[in-house]
Amino acid sequence: MKHEWRKHEKELYVPKDKPQLLTIPKQKFFAIKGKGNPNNADFSERIGVLYSLAYAVRMMPKNGFTPDGYFEYTVYPLEGVWDLTEEGKNSDILNKDELLYTIMIRQPDFVTNEAVIKAFEIVNKKKPHPLLKEVYFDEIEDGLSVQIMHKGSYDDEPASFEKMLNFINENGYERKSMVHREIYLSDARKTEKDKLKTVLRYMIKTK
Question: Where does the GyrI-like small molecule binding domain lie (predicted)?
């Protein structure tokens, strides 16, 4: 049976629109770092490179290589970890040009270094791109976290962050840092702003 993250990993990817406490296990990702406004073309180029690698893994059996433990699955959604430069943190107004980000796409557990090398070989041959050299493979464990489903424009996210912060403070936790994670369940190019769905997450610890 095909593994579909929306159905089989609902706790991680389909939270309610109120804060939810959970522990995120170690996960594997293709990732790339960047700086600046996500509305710029550079951001889209980085997304494209990540997806080319993600689909290279997904389609490997058709390219003559089947990793051990391979199973049919739906490609995972784009995720982003967001921070600000020091200048951005010292400003009272959000300047998107001062954003620092790492965007990534999760990979199934069967993906090993061998499969990663193969994915790069496939993409370098079929769809080469200068940004490929900036992509890296990593294992990340968010651990204890609070997340919420945000529905609507990205610019309206502060209201959902406030709900999470209230939950964190009321339940004896604190954020590990100002950094937050976003998981994009909607394609912003094809979805109306008021219908966008984005998972927002803070890593936390007990006070």
Answer: 18-198
pTM: 0.96
**In order of start, what are the domains of the chain with their CATH numbers?**
5-206 (3.20.80.10)
148 CB-near residues (< 8 Å, 6+ apart): 15, 16, 17, 18, 19, 20, 160, 163, 164, 199, 200
Q: Token match 């209201």: residue?
A: 159
What's the number of CA atoms in the CB half-sphere (13 Å) around residue 68? Answer: 3
**Any bridge partners for residue 174, and if so which?**
205
Per-residue model confidence as pLDDT tens digits over 153-176: 999 999 999 999 999 999 999 999
| Distance from C-alpha of 168 to C-alpha of 116, rounded to nearest angstrom | 37
